[in-house]
Design brief:
- 11% of the residues lie in helices and 46% in strands.
- With 227 residues, the protein is mainly beta.
- The protein has a single domain, classed as Lipoprotein localisation LolA/LolB/LppX (outer membrane lipoprotein receptor (LolB), chain A, Clam).
- Strands 7-8-9-10-11-1-2-3-4-5-6-12 form a twelve-stranded mixed beta sheet.
Length: 227
């Protein structure tokens, strides 16, 4: 597998894949109810959380290019629309939503350019937990696949196939069996690219930090504004 330093693109939905104890989807009759019960439990847990911070590891596999990119860093989110993904590898890369703008800065590939996008108006526009945990039975055909370990924690594995057209083909979610939190997510895009995100050291409702969701373009960098 090829490894290289690189950034990431879109962050609105995340997900993942691992092998192990999961069973074939064609053998899953009778597992929908259990999957839905677990997703509803996670949804109730999610509604109690105003924000979180965690460490992340990400893998982006692009079969068409025969390329796989790995990255890691810290991720924080706060309702309704604050988001920060800051990379330690590649160092300095950042994706930040400050409530007014959505900033993308990848000095690993272009240190002289910053992209600035207008924020979505609707609440939760960058809330990737909301994508999977809000009304999951309406959005997805769910199936329970079994139990796997993620970073030393026991996790329920759930397959989620979209009922509509969310822009991806299939998702798989790993829910912490004790805390009902998303530990890992995998999403297969329509172009067959697969993005996998694993969270660890999850801290719920962290103390406020005025700099957590602040982004200041580096001196000399060109800011390209897009709508």
């Amino acid at each position: 597998m090829k490894r290289r330093r690189g950034g990431v693109a879109r962050l609105l939905v995340m997900a993942l894949w691992v092998g192990g104890t999961a069973v074939p989807f064609s053998h899953l009759s009778g597992q929908e109810d259990r999957a839905l019960a677990l997703m509803r439990e996670a949804s109730a847990r999610y509604r109690q959380i105003s924000g979180f911070c965690a460490r992340f590891e990400q893998e982006l596999a692009v079969p068409l290019l025969r390329d796989t990119t790995h990255s890691r860093g810290s991720l924080c989110q706060e309702r309704p629309n604050l988001f920060a993904m800051r990379f330690s590898d590649p160092a300095g890369d950042a994706v930040v939503a400050d409530g007014n703008s959505f900033w993308v800065y990848y000095p690993s590939s272009d240190p002289g350019q910053v992209l600035q996008f207008a924020m979505e108006v609707r609440p939760g526009g960058l809330d990737f937990h909301r994508e999977f945990l809000e009304a999951p039975e309406e959005k997805y055909q769910l199936a329970y696949l079994g139990v796997e370990m993620v970073k030393g924690r026991r996790a329920h594995v759930i397959d989620a196939r979209p009922r509509g057209d969310p822009g991806f083909e299939e998702a798989r979610i790993w829910l912490d069996s004790e805390r009902a939190l998303i530990l890992r997510a995998r999403i297969e895009m329509e172009n067959q690219s697969v993005r996998t995100v694993t969270l660890s050291d999850i801290q719920l409702n962290p103390p406020p930090d005025p700099d957590r969701f602040r982004f200041v373009p580096p001196a000399g960098a060109q800011v390209i504004r897009r709508h």
